[in-house]
UniProtKB/TrEMBL annotation:
UniProt key word Membrane: yes
Domain of life: Bacteria
Stretches that traverse the bilayer: 12-35, 41-58, 65-83, 95-114
Protein name: Uncharacterized protein
UniProt keyword Transmembrane, yes or no: yes
Keywords in alphabetical order: Membrane, Transmembrane, Transmembrane helix
Species name: Nocardia bhagyanarayanae
């Protein structure tokens, strides 16, 4: 049985999936395409970007910046393809150029933002873990110091003190 993916890889998948959808809608709108919430292509875009996020989040290895940009490019291509599936979809040549440049500009910016968010969340989680570790430990009291009393020398008790009425009175002891 496989272990579940780390929290950071799941978070990376969520970032890549949501960024692919957001950039797909923004680039489509900047390129002159109409994106309306009632279009079936928006539902397809949400499903496609969720699938991209799950696939990216299931990867076990930490991705480098170049690989992260490649994953964003694939996610944006899938998102753009999902948006073009609406009936009556068309682009002009100028709109396609603007859309392409928007997608290309969003890839490195998105990768840097995702990498920065991962670093910030890792730092925050590490700080929280350290605080919880400190709060969870129970302080133990310092051991009490051991005081040793040493006799200086035994003093012979005086006879008067020994026979001063301590005990019961009775006949003298036989010698």
């Amino acid at each position: 049985m496989r272990k579940p993916a780390e929290g950071s890889t799941r978070l990376r998948g969520a970032f890549v999936g949501s960024a692919s959808g957001a950039v797909g809608i923004a680039a489509h709108a900047l390129g002159g395409g109409v994106v309306a919430p009632e279009q079936p292509s928006v539902a397809l875009l949400i499903g496609a970007c969720a699938a991209v996020g799950v696939l990216v989040g299931s990867r076990r290895l930490r991705t480098g910046l170049v690989e992260l940009m490649g994953l964003l490019a694939i996610g944006q291509a899938i998102g753009h393809t999902a948006l073009t599936m609406s009936p009556g979809h068309h682009h002009g040549s100028h709109a396609t150029t603007v859309m392409l440049f928007t997608h290309l500009a969003a890839i490195p910016v998105g990768a840097l933002l995702i990498r920065g968010a991962e670093a910030a969340l890792t730092s925050a989680a590490s700080s929280v873990r350290d605080v919880v570790r400190v709060l969870r430990t129970v302080p133990t009291p310092a051991p009490a110091p051991i005081v040793r009393v040493t006799p200086r020398g035994a003093v012979n008790p005086r006879r008067l003190l020994l026979s001063s009425g301590i005990g019961t009175r009775g006949p003298p002891a036989h010698r």
